[in-house]
Amino acid sequence: MTNDGSTPLSPPPPPPHTGGHGEVPPSAPYAARLDIRYPEQFNRVTTAFRLILIIPIVIVLRVLTGSGTQISQTTGGEWVSTTTTNVGGALFGATLLMILFKKRYPRWWFDFNLELTRFTARVGAYAVLLTDTYPSTVEHQDVALDIDYPDAEHDLMRGLPLVKWFLAIPHYIVLFFLAIGVFFVVIVSWFAILFTGRYPRGLFEYVVGVGRWVLRVNAYAFLLVTDTYPPFSLR
Question: Residue 10 pLDDT more than 60?
Fold first, then answer.
């Protein structure tokens, strides 16, 4: 009680902790994220014939992303070769130049890269038996993939895209061995699904984790959406 009989006000609560000096603030999520819903039961029939069923959608993906050399004959009888570049490679080169000289990342280029990456992820998830849902060219289905649109003016260094592919070499080495593991995991899981109708949960999480890792490296080195170096993590 104060001298005038009133009740003193209690001191205000301390401000929320935000990670001051000597403290590590919570880390923000990486700019590229992937998650796949785990099905409790898998279809034995579509799993058994997956290599055949996936052929049509792989052809569609190949048309979108493929490149090659076409040999033709001119009216004069001369044989000439024409080399075509895939869309992803063309956009990588164009985006690199835009960041390098203008510090811009055109939104429609980003949107196209995002949807192509999502479509590729759906085909990949179906190929490695992570989902029974046939890959759609439009709907997200069981594969949740998101990439943050970058503020190129403030968040991207002008010259870094020139060397990102080189800086990511340690990731390529690790991913090579992880991919070997995925190959054997998919074979084991194929038999597991045929006999039990289930994808072993630990193996499922491993394959999804490798997919996350690949996505983060792709977002850093080739989609060029972030300058934050990808973590060496399956999570």
Answer: no
- SS3 annotation, the chain: CCCCCCCCCCCCCCCCCCCCCCCCCCCCCCCEEEEECCCCCCCHHHHHCHHHHCHHHHHHHHHHHCCEEEEEECCCCCEEEEEECCHHHHHHHHHHHHHHHCCCCCHHHHHHHHHHHHHHHHHHHHHCCCCCCCCCCCCCCCEEEEECCCCHHHHCCCCHHHCHHHHCHHHHHHHHHHHHHHHHHHHHHHHHHHHHCCCCHHHHHHHHHHHHHHHHHHHHHCCCCCCCCCCCCCC
Residue 26 to residues 13, 18, 166, 219: CA-CA distances in angstroms?
22, 9, 29, 22
Residue 18 has pLDDT above 70, yes or no: no
Q: Which of 3, 17, 224 is nearest to 104 (CA)?
A: 224
Sequence-separated (6 or more) residues with CB below 8 Å from residue 94: 109
Please list, in sequence order, all residues whose beta carbon lies within 8 angstroms of the beta carbon of residue 217, skipping any fewer than 6 positions away: 168, 171, 172, 175, 230
Three-state DSSP at 213 gives helix
Q: What is the pTM of this model?
A: 0.80
Residue 54 to residue 47: CA distance in whole angstroms:
10
Q: How buried is residue 189: exposed, middle or buried, by Cβ count under 10 Å (0-12/13-18/19+)?
A: buried
179: tokens are 């991919």
| pLDDT mean across residues, the chain | 85
Q: Between vectors from CA 232 to CA 229 and to CA 234, what angle results, nearest 5°? A: 125
